[in-house]
Design goal:
This protein is mainly α and 113 residues long. The protein has 3 helices and 2 strands; from the N terminus they run ββααα.
């Protein structure tokens, strides 16, 4: 929206034209949800399903949990490219870091058990 008005200043008798521009910006949240949040939730869910694999399988659980950790890190890097750059840590970034920590713990627990 554009507004135009004349402004009178105390120093001068003639009016000065002033243009005022108003912008309203919106982000498409559907792309953000499908490109950042959904992959994180799916990888987390699949990561917790690792413990449904029977333990006696020779190295299947540690191998799958390591693959899930690498998948989580890859999804994090892809998602970080699709979000705006900022000097502050966002809540989505914190969620990914917590997910990577949990995936690391899954790797350790799958090796131990």
């Amino acid at each position: 929206r554009t507004l135009w008005k004349n402004v009178f200043y105390g120093c001068c008798p003639e009016p000065y034209p002033v243009l005022i521009y108003e912008f309203q910006l919106e982000r498409a949240s559907g792309t953000h949800f499908s490109g950042v949040i959904t992959p994180m939730l799916l990888v987390s869910f699949i990561g917790f399903c690792i413990f449904l694999i029977p333990a006696p399988l020779s190295g299947a659980r540690p191998a799958l949990s390591t693959t899930m950790l690498l998948t989580y890190v890859t999804v994090y890097f892809v998602a970080s490219r699709s979000t705006p750059q900022s000097n502050k840590t966002t809540s989505i970034g914190r969620m990914y870091v917590v997910g990577i920590v949990f995936a690391s713990m899954q790797v350790i627990l799958s090796i131990i058990s």
